[in-house]
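Why does residue order matter? Because the sequence determines the fold. Keep that principle in mind as you read this record.
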Amino acid sequence: MLSQRSHYVPFCHEKQKSIVDFPAAVSPPSTAVVYDQHGPPDTVTRVTEIPPVKITENDVCVRMLAAPINPADINRIEGVYPVRPQVPTIGGWEGVGEVHSFGSAVKTLSHGDLVIHSAYIPGTWQTYVVEDQSLWHKIDKSTPIEYAATCSVNPLSALRMLEDFVALKPGDTIVQNGATSIVGQCVIQLARVRGIHSINIIRDKPGSDEVKEKLMKLGADLVFTESELDVKSIKSLLDDIPEPRLGLNCIGGNAATLVIKLLRQGGTMVTYGGMSKKPITISTSSFIFKDVSLRGFWLQEKNLDQAQYRCSIDYLLALARAGRLKYEMELVPFNDFHTALEKAMGKQGSRKKQVLKF
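Structure:
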């Protein structure tokens, strides 16, 4: 039987119960997005009620405020993600909420505190979540909820890739494809904060000049379409910017090849996605004469300890509050879940990141 511990919650258009409506030892009933089998997300998901659960002495009951629909969430529902929760289960792996009630042994959190998960646990697409106090991380109340809800996947991935593979220093350069993605936008801004140059590759499509302008405003040094890099002397395009020490690839195919070509001697390319579904092709000479390294990154397998995780999150959210880390999102009422899901699946064209607001 599903419970708020395995992840469920109520519609935002319903009147929320106040703390005094329920005994402290029991959570309020919850409304959640559930799927009983893997398959097309728009057909296998349903919204249902979840009964109250007992709150033990170390538990914290959190009223969810916002949670995004990430591509990985869709892949998990489809059953194609490497880690698949046992079904039936509740969707969502990221989100923010406020403390509603807690057990007698909880001393570090108070009613109304803003919190996010400090571990990757499924079930954020619900109105109330009950978990052990160790799994919640208190954040600054002035943080905009859409950034609090989305900081622990895409921005954290960008930060960890910039820090964990190459010891970058001010004046160094990185190159990336997929620069318009949220990870890509975060990479640009985090690099700028650290005095690191960024070279960015985007797809050839109408409106590329506007895209370039947008990325330059975020702090990009150079932005090229793939076709603009289809030249014999690719590095002649870099002006006075040093050759990149680190490359980031989320596309594969030709876009990955371009990243490799731009890398300096001994450079490293990190792959964290493969949106083109095309293989990465690298020449023998890139290995022999350039000593290029190819690495992979999957945030869920990073196994960050809680101290490192919390420090990273606090750093990212401080930048967001200061306006130095930003990306476009669309807040959608929870009762419009299936509309938001269609947008997130690309069924209504290119859309901003969909964030459910409870």
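The first strand starts at residue 30 and ends at 35.
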